[in-house]
Amino acid sequence: MTTGLSPEADTALRAHIRALLTQAQAHEMLDDVLVDFPTARAGQRVHGLPYSASEILWHLRFTLRDILDFVQGGAYEHPKWPDGYWPHDPEGSAREWDAQVAALHADMDALLALLDDPATDLLAVVPNGVGAGGQTWLREFLLVADHNAYHVAQLALLRRLLT
């Protein structure tokens, strides 16, 4: 740990980030939204909304995997925005609901392992970050929390509309 934070502050910051990623704070959590989700209708777009629940779930899983690939270094190329971040086979994404949920959980576990690793300097630029002032570990963890909260809220609304 070389954040310049005291060990106590570093531990507290990691605990706050972990809570944001894993506990209902000012938002619902994915697992709570998925309870009793009408998965038989997950591929249906409703009320003119641009994405179905299965497309949003696919996007959540894909984006988390993309962020993991980005922060872990190695060869990395951003998918084209926005097309690269949304499924190309909406019917296929509906059939793969359980697999998407399992992959999302596995990737979240991998992200949390990085957060819990004391060698992860929260204020350091990630391996594929862009120079000084680039994407730090802290930014990436907060980005995942923000992105997940936004799309989990969409899934909560779709659950209501599809039930």
Provide a short characterization of the protein structure.
The chain is mainly alpha-helical and 163 residues long. It contains six helices and no strands.
> SSE string, helix = H, strand = E?
HHHHHH
Number of strands: 0
Low-confidence segments, ≥5 residues, pLDDT <50? none
Oligomer: single chain
* Helix/strand structural class: mainly alpha
- Overall form: globular
Helical stretch tally = 6
Relative strand content: under 5%
Rg is 17 Å
The percent range for helix content is 55-70%
The average pLDDT value, as a whole number, equals 92
- Describe the sheet with the most strands: none
Distance between the termini: 48 Å
Which secondary structure elements does this structure contain, and how are they paired or packed?
Blueprint (H helix, E strand, L loop, with lengths): L6 H16 L7 H5 L18 H19 L18 H6 L1 H20 L20 H26 L1
Helix pairs in contact: 3-5, 3-6
